Amino acid sequence: MISNRGQLAKTILALFLGLAAALLDPVHAETTAQLDLSPERCVALNEGQTCYQTVLISWQADHPADYCLVREPQEAPLVCWENRSHGKAKMEFASSETVTFRLRLTDKVSQRDIDVAESAVIVTWVYSDTKRRRNSWRLF
User: Fold this and answer.
1) N or C: which end of the chain has fewer CB within 10 A?
2) Nearest to 126 by CA among 53, 47, 68
3) Phi and psi of 24, rounded to 5°?
């Protein structure tokens, strides 16, 4: 009878662990992802001017799931991929300030979004907007 109880305990434990594993979606595990933007820098002529550029976006994650690309501070996704572990996109960038992009994992079970990677396009300029401007008509 003791061996039956031991066998029963092992069976119950195996069922419990199997149920726990089934309930824990791999989405909840630590997700490793990488988000790459190319180019990472956009250069405008003068400070405060809008910089225009085509940005190539690529990402990869350690397991397939539903991912979306989000531009801060907006919450609406720019593009989404379903059941993928990698993706690419191309977009027209226009901003006078540095912009951060996030790769967001969408968990359908818990209805939560988890940011798994981020990268930014840094906006710089050639000429700083100084308070004291030079006179452009000076010859010497």
Assistant:
1) C
2) 47
3) -85, 105
What do you get for the CA distance between the two ends of the chain, in Å?
106
Distance CA 119, CA 58 (A): 11
Coil, helix or strand for 130?
Answer: coil
pLDDT in tens, 35-66: 999 999 999 999 999 999 999 999 999 999 99
The model's pTM is 0.69
Residues with Cβ within 8 Å of 31's Cβ and at least 6 positions away in sequence, in order, are: 61, 62, 63, 65, 105, 114, 116
Would you say the C-alpha torsion 109, 113, 118, 123 has a positive or negative sign?
A: positive
